[in-house]
Amino acid sequence: MIQANLDNCIMEFYTQLKEYENFNDFFSDEEKITAVSKMQHNYWLGFFKGEITEGYISERVRVGEVHANINLPLKTTYSNLMSKENTEVKNSFQIINSISKMLNLDASIVVSTYAHKVNKVLSNRSSALEAEVIEREKIEEELKKQVRQAEQFNKMAIDRELRIIEMKKEIDELLIRLGEEKRYD
User: Fold this and answer.
1) End-to-end CA distance of the chain
2) Predicted TM-score of the model (pTM)
3) Which of 66, 118, 165, 180 has a CB 3.0–4.6 Å from the CB of 175, allowing a cystine?
């Protein structure tokens, strides 16, 4: 339906464009309008194929750059297809627009739900990791306390043993002074 009216839509588009003051700067003669009309015809045929390829994207980027360079309002690019004279085309675009809105809504809901779910899982995992880190820190502190206590006990025990050895030497020295035999060797 749209393709059948495509050439009429394109002709109407360039008729509307003639109203812009810089139209003649870009479309100085009919040959140029004819050449650009053919490019636009191919553009719309590619559009209605519905095949999104790198070439398709590159062509749309190029068209956007050209329209920006000539200061063509965005609404003008599509307005000729939506004019009152093209009721069938307008209805088709309304259907396409409705489907597009539904797809965007659907995608938005799915992506939002997915992101919410992933964030919740990550938050739960983060909380669990935080709890595990806190528990490990408590265990580490308890182990450090036990190590300090063991080191203190070990130092005290060694000091005690050294003091006992010293006392045995003193006892042996005193015994020798008294003329008796040593008890410890």
Assistant:
1) 118
2) 0.41
3) 180
